[in-house]
Amino acid sequence: MRGRLIEDRIGFDRRHLWHPYTSMEDPLPVYPVASAAGVRIVLEDGRELIDGMSSWWAAIHGYNHPVLNQAVRDQLEDMAHVMFGGLTHGPAVDLASLLVEIAPSGLEKVFFCDSGSVAVEVAIKMALQYWQSMKHGERQKLLTIRCGYHGDTLGAMSVCDPETGMHHLFRSILPQHYFAKAPRCGFDGSLDEDALSDLSRLLQEHGREIAAVILEPIVQGAGGMRFYPPLYLRRVRELTHEHDTLLILDEIATGFGRTGKLFASEWANISPDILCLGKALTGGYMTMAATLTTSRVAEVISSGDPGVFMHGPTFMANPLACSVALASTRLLLSSPWKERVAAIQEHLTRDLSKCLDFPHVADVRVLGAIGVVELHRPVALARIQKRFVERGVWIRPFGRLVYTMPPYLILAQDLQHLTAAMVETIREEGA
User: Fold this and answer.
1) Which of 130, 149, 403, 408 is the catalytic position?
2) 305 plus 377 within the same structural domain
3) CB–CB of 397/325 below 8 Å?
4) What is the DSSP string of 92-153?
5) Which of 8, 21, 45, 74 is an active site residue?
6) Could you report the per-residue pLDDT of 97-130, keeping only the tens digit for each?
7) Per-residue b/e over 91-127, b at no fewer than 16 CB within 10 Å?
8) 279 catalytically annotated
């Protein structure tokens, strides 16, 4: 009976549910999940998979964590949701206070929103409304670097790489912004002067149109899982000051310790004018994001016409999400997360470097709890996914990239199983 129920659900899913980045005519296989705890995802057929993705980089404490579960239960006893227009509540105030305390210096105003993409939309609107309030409405363009990814909503899509950012189909309807060359020197490489000169040139030529520079600090995520050196980011901050342009940092993927620093911008010892947070903010429990900005930006927007910031999500500062985000962030800060991430980096560097011996592998790169193996050709996702599941791990490649971002509390033996499965499966891809 249970087997039949599972089959019925899979059949309904295949006919009616549209999964991310897949076709309804020929959808990719899906694997029904019964439960998840720690770093393990338990499938309906009883198989257990060691999670190498932190559910798209969000579940940094793993699954079914007792501290986070309790935070949700406790909040549920008081209220699941109230509107944030005209009301406030303790979880929102306490979470905002903690974020202001730990964020890069100067970021003192917090705007809660629904998801990472919406956090980027809010950041863009803040930048545009800032310049409108400054009587510089001509500053309506954004400047970013190629190979970036900032989300799937319209404003966020407009600053994703027009070729590698998955959104080329919509290019004709998106606002047209400026794209500089992406640095190509790696985290430990020397400064890519050519890339920096290209960004500097665009600021020089179009600075009077540009409202903000937006980029992912140190690690470019879904646009290619590329790393670049802290010096490049530091120089970008200097250029934005020089040209009186706002700097937006998208730390949705890199925030909360993933790169080895609490925020990736700390590698360059800089602070942006606007910061986007999401993913790991709630430990993967609920959808929530935050956009932080400076008192200067907030004051200018609030003093201009119409005197208010024009955005207000229905589920803004949802109490359940705020409560679990507060618990998750406190849990992270009280844990030995730096040591755990350093240990993961050491292990990923040692094990994944074996892939460099394979002729079909173009590059291996590791930073913090991020390990990336780049192949010369795209993988066949359905086939390679099946092989990973058969080896008892959950890895979700895309394009030419096979990568892992495991939960920070993964044990050494589980991480060994994970990387061994990655190396062996990648070896088979070249056979």
Assistant:
1) 149
2) no
3) no
4) HHHHHHHHHHHSSTTEEEEEEESSHHHHHHHHHHHHHHHHHHTT-TT--EEEEETT----SS
5) 21
6) 999 999 999 999 999 999 999 999 999 999 999 9
7) bbeebbebbeeebbebbbbbbbbbbbbbbbbbbbbbb
8) yes
Identified catalytic residue from 250, 273, 351, 414: 250
Known active-site residue 250: yes
Domain boundary among 317, 334, 351: 334
**Tens-place pLDDT, residues 353-378:** 999 999 999 999 999 999 999 999 99
Distance (Å, whole) CA 336 – CA 30: 35
Phi, psi (deg, nearest 5) at residue 326: -65, -45
Do both 105 and 216 map to the same domain? yes
For residue 184, tell me if it sits in a domain. yes
Residues 260 and 379 in one domain: no
Q: Which residues touch 1 (CB under 8 Å, ≥6 apart)? A: none
Q: How many domains does the chain have?
A: 2
| Whole-prediction pTM | 0.97
Does residue 352 form part of some domain? yes
Check 279, 285, 351, 403 and give the catalytic one: 279
Write out the residue range of the structural domain in which residue 162 sits.
68-334
The residue ranges of DSSP E strands in 225-325, in sequence order, are: 226-227, 246-250, 274-277, 289-294
- pLDDT one-digit tens code per residue, 287-313: 999 999 999 999 999 999 999 999 999
Residue 369 sits in the same domain as residue 301: no
Of 115-124, 183-192, 244-253, 327-336, the range with the lowest mean pLDDT is 183-192
Q: What is the pLDDT of residue 164?
A: 66
